[in-house]
Amino acid sequence: MKPVTILLVGILIVDVAALAANVAPVFSQESNPQDTLRWNGGQNYQQPTVIVVIGAAGTREFGGQFAKSARLWEEACSKGDAKFAVIGLDKVEDSNDRTTLQKILADEPKQTTAALWLVLIGHGTFDGRTAKFNLRGPDISADDLAEWLKPLLRPIAVINTASSSAPFLSKLSGQGRVVITATKSGYEQNYTRFGQYLAGAIAEPQADLDKDGQTSLLEAFLTASGRVDEFYSAAGRLVTEHALLDDNGDGLGTRADWFRGIRPVQKAENSASLDGYRAHQFHIVHSEAENKISLGLRAQRDRLELEVIKLRDAKEEFSEDEYFSKLEALLYDIAQIYEQTNEADNRSQR
Ligand SMILES: [Ca+2]
Ligand SMILES: [Ca+2]
Question: What is the pTM assigned to this prediction?
Answer without folding.
Answer: 0.86
